[in-house]
Specification:
D-Maltodextrin-Binding Protein, domain 2, five-stranded mixed sheet, elongated, single chain, alpha/beta, 12 strands, 43% helix, 297 residues, Arc Repressor Mutant, subunit A
């Protein structure tokens, strides 16, 4: 006999689907693991089907669970929209999850949040940096800042600006040439580049063209790691101007045509949310204010 459907148990299902573990879901929802496990069992019984397969390293959705996920998310966000509508028009409260890169979060976004959080004391911002798997369609985040323009889905896009890139080196590497920097041949130089999984990036493709079949001296899968490698004198690297400038690196070539556009992306269903709109407007104003820092060497 099937148990009665309980929406609170559906919240448990969504939390486990998003983080993949009971402990992570329990922390997200602020409840004990035993309580959460009991709610999941009750929810599966109410539907008459297993929603997860249990593995040593976590929980994976079954085919039935995958089929249910979109409907459960639609119910969740219908509930959130109803709650938003019930609030006073001027009230901005709740959490906004923002997915972005580590370097943008560290250099620009986090230092800018003090003012907006003081203005809206009931607003909370969760910054998800360096997370490759964030999916706006699954509502892992409310907003995302991306350097690749999404080409599909029910998404609202806003161009934030451009991140300028140049070819940089440290004195420790540039002075290795007998003739000094003036004798450096870019076609024979050593490079710090991207790992194989990131070869689609314009910067990675530029380095590949310069290497002409030679292996890259050092490869890394993040700009922060590449910045450290270039600073250590391991080779030349294609880096954002704002990051290289703060490290005191020398700009060998400031115009290599690999600049990338920054996009602010949100799911269209959230475009009318007060809390999301306030954070989105803050980011738009912030990146307009720092546009010269992003583009100039």
């Amino acid at each position: 006999m099937k148990a009665d459907f309980n929406w609170d148990d559906a919240r448990v299902f969504l939390a486990i689907a998003r983080v993949g573990t009971l402990s992570g879901a329990a922390e997200t929802l602020g409840m004990g693991i035993a309580t959460l496990s009991r709610k999941l069992d009750r929810f599966e019984k109410s539907l008459g089907m297993p929603l997860f397969s249990r593995h040593q390293n976590g929980y994976r959705l079954t085919d039935d669970g995958e089929a249910l996920l979109a409907r459960a998310e639609a119910l969740e966000y219908a509930g959130l929209a109803l709650g938003e509508s019930a609030k006073l028009q001027g009230n901005v409260a709740g959490i906004v999850r923002l997915a972005t890169s580590d370097n943008l979060a560290t250099h620009f976004i986090l230092p800018s949040l003090k003012g907006i959080l003081e203005k809206y004391p009931d607003l909370r911002v969760e910054v998800l940096s360096g997370v490759q798997s964030v999916n706006l369609h699954r509502r892992d985040a409310d907003l995302a800042i991306r350097m690749v323009k999404p080409d599909s889905g029910n998404l609202t896009l806003k161009r934030l600006g451009t991140v300028g890139f140049g070819l940089y080196g440290a004195d420790a590497y540039l002075n290795m040439s007998n003739d000094g920097f003036t004798g450096l041949s870019l076609s024979h130089a050593q490079y710090v580049g991207w790992s194989e999984s990131h070869q689609h990036l314009p910067a990675a493709q530029w380095v590949t063209r310069m290497l002409r079949g030679r292996p890259c001296r050092v490869e890394a899968n993040s700009l922060v790691t590449q910045l450290s490698a270039v600073s250590a004198g391991l080779g030349l690297g294609v880096l954002p101007h704002f990051m290289a400038r703060r490290k005191g690196l020398y700009c060998v070539n400031s115009d290599i045509s690999v600049d990338q556009t920054l996009w602010l992306v949100m799911h269209s269903d959230l475009a009318g949310s007060r809390r999301v709109r306030v954070v989105a407007d803050h980011l738009i104003a912030l990146f307009d204010e720092v546009k010269d820092q992003l583009t100039l060497p």
